[in-house]
Amino acid sequence: MKKFVNNVDDMLTESLSGFATAHSELVTVQFEPTFVSRKQKAQNKVAIISGGGSGHEPLHAGYVGKGMLDAACPGQVFTSPTPDQMLAAAEAVHADKGVLFIVKNYAGDVMNFEMATEMLPFDHATVLTSDDCAVVNSTYTTGRRGVAGTVIIEKCVGSLAETGADLASCKALGDKINLRTSSIGAALTSCTVPAAGRPTFDISDSELEMGVGIHGEPGRRREAMRTADAIVADMVAAIVHDFEAKHLPTQGDILLLVNGLGATPLMELYLIYNTAATLLTNKGFNIARSLVGNYITAIDMAGASLTACLLDDDIQQHWDRPVHTAGLRWGC
After folding, report:
1. Which of 117, 161, 239, 327 has the fewest CB atoms within 10 Å, counting from its CB?
2. What pTM value is reported for the model?
3. Among this protein's residues, is 23 annotated catalytic?
């Protein structure tokens, strides 16, 4: 394994220190316990907090800032943050209108965030993200996994919170977006967790993993490598089938997110977008909003995910509102 690393045990601390220094106008980092928060604490709003294992950058710390998160709790690579991190973050950023946690549906994250909420002295609620249509159950989850749709939820709920909306309204929007969002990923290579020093799984040059998770966990099936058009067609079909299974419209305005998993060039991501947009348009969808790039990664995995979110006026207006974070910014 070749990586830019000094000591594996210090990697997260050194990375977060560099992140906070590079974006010192936006964020500050605290250690023992570890969390990232806005440089300027927001006032009189619902505090939006998320977190999870590191290795998915820019998620979650990269989305701390105006119009998105108030704080993020990063665990070690692919390891849930601890309840004391979540409690410390909540104490630091709550602004008298309660706290909303946005939690990806992985067993460790769910358990630790639940433990934290049991000790909170103020109002709180949780949005559990579960947009991955590839796998219903796995050893990592108690149902569908939370993946790239988490970015859309954090953006839109963060926008709503900035307007002064109450806790119940912020949770309701997050739950609605989660229902109306579907994602699926495909991997060409594994990822390498620094502490392990070797790929998480073995895959040959002639294979791909369809429906892979963001920790390198297996997907729907291992299959022969094919053309990009054929791979994307299967991913689009899975998303449309998921909409049908949830009794959602299979036409109308959508937000299409093509997300890189860490080691896929933009050239390939835009090729994927071109195919996906054509297929979805032919099926009756209108690509009203789009995003292409690395937004929730799996360290150094070569692969990509597709996410489609069925828009309504409420979701679209909060997607469009200004955001100013290290990983996402517009309208500022």
Report:
1. 117
2. 0.97
3. no
